Amino acid sequence: MEGKRGESVMRKKSEQEGEVMDGSDIMELVGDEKVYGEFVDHKFQELDRDRDGKLSLKELQPAVADIGAALGLPAPGSSPDSDHIYSEVLREFTHGKHEKVSKTEFKEVLSDILIGMADGLKRDPIVILRIDGEDLLEFIKSPSFEPELVSILSEIEVPNGSLRDYIIKAFERLSVDQGMPPASDSWVMSNIVEPALQSCSTLLEQPIRQDTFLPQLTKVAECVAQHLKERPVIVAHTENTFDGSGIKRLLSKKFELEKTLDAALKTVARDHSGKISKEYLRVALDAVAPSAGLPPFGAVAQMDKVIADVAKMLDADDGKTVKEEEFKMLLTEILGSIMLQLEGNPVSVSANSVVHEPLTSASTLLQLPSHSAA
């Protein structure tokens, strides 16, 4: 169900040494008026270089950059897509004007941004894992190692590939659940996998043969575990399963549903007669998504396909205009159809990202005061 994370990794790791980031610290901060006020006072003073009691566009730039870092964006100037997001964050603070921002405005907008981040982490908690080779060694010694690797070998196709090529592809298919950080990450490949390949096997350039694949892979995997012991890798891991339960809960609560739909309708435009184009159903659905346990549009490709199939089935993209009540009925019908699709075929997604620097150094603006947890 939504909110119930991949138990094989999430529960196991959080009980061991994984740090779970679920937004609760942020909500605790924003929810404590006194502590949050002190937090804002400190940050505002830190940013207000000319001490005029307001923040200029230039003084806001470090705050915007730190928010981007906390959201996992690359540094400003790295890409047009991320720069657009930075511009939108700045626009939130300035309300689209080129005027200075007061402490009250800064406090309100920062609160909205922090609550949005906390809501995202609540829906999709992040577990910070320290991969140090122990789980990989445990997997190598387990009865499931050989059959799983034979199965992986049967799925790999590398025309004229060498033993080395097949071993690399095999490592790319292993997961954090088996004690392997993502080998698709260039740092992991160059600092963990490649050194293990160079030091632990002399047969790598030979053509692939099933009788040599497993013994050589085992040998290299043991070397990878040793390298991980010497240089542990920090991985941010998320898992989620969308099975329609979030929608079912929302549809069962009529007052909450009506309130959510009314809020969603405020995000769409109307024509001169007050009617709404059905092309705005996707926009409204995105506004409802957090309450229905759904990801934002574009975040999960499998979910985008489910929604597109439902929209096509219900003629939601025909561009016709409808009255507000009919629009709400259509939106409710779309939610119900998505729920039925997910109940029959749940969508499970997971992601692993190597953390190349300590999380605490990524953003200075959003470091929570140490006394806020008290």
Automatic annotation (TrEMBL):
UniProt biased composition (Basic and acidic residues): 1-16
PROSITE patterns: EF_HAND_1, EF_HAND_2
A molecular function (GO) term: calcium ion binding
SUPFAM superfamilies hit by this protein: EF-hand
InterPro entries registered for this protein in UniProt: EF-hand-dom_pair, EF_Hand_1_Ca_BS, EF_hand_dom
Residue ranges annotated for the EF-hand domain, each copy included: 35-70, 256-291
Stretch list, region Disordered: 1-24
UniProtKB keywords: Calcium
One Pfam family cited in the UniProt record for this chain: EF-hand_7
SMART domains recorded: EFh
Protein name: EF-hand domain-containing protein
Lineage: Eukaryota, Viridiplantae, Streptophyta, Embryophyta, Tracheophyta
